[in-house]
Amino acid sequence: MTNFTTKIELSNDRDDEIKEILAHVHAALVEKGYNPISQLVGYIMSGDPTYITGHKGARGMITRFERDEILEVVFKEYLNK
To answer: For residue 76, what is the DSSP state?
Structure first.
């Protein structure tokens, strides 16, 4: 067992693109009648893309990013407000 904390460095290059995709996915989920927060949490936790609708290409868009990249953007947005 170690007393050191693992440090992770993720790129900020795609933050704006991820924000746009999340907004698009959110809108697509709402249009199809899903609870977008529950669906996105299901996807992030499981990695199963079937939590995201294929409507308006949402599933293909969100799977272009790693889940840790998405979470980093979400946390940054939440904690910086």
So the answer is: H
Whether the pTM exceeds 0.85: the reply is no
pLDDT at res. 3: 81
List, in order, residues 6 or more apart from 37 with CB less than 8 Å away.
none
Residues 48, 67: contact at Cβ < 8 Å? no
Task: Please provide the average confidence, as pLDDT, over all residues in the chain.
Answer: 92
* Domain range list for the chain: 15-79
CA distance 69 to 14: 9
- 69 to 1, 8, 72, 74: CA distances (angstroms): 28, 11, 5, 9
- Please report, as a single letter, which amino acid is at residue 29: L
pLDDT in tens, 24-40: 999 999 999 999 999 99
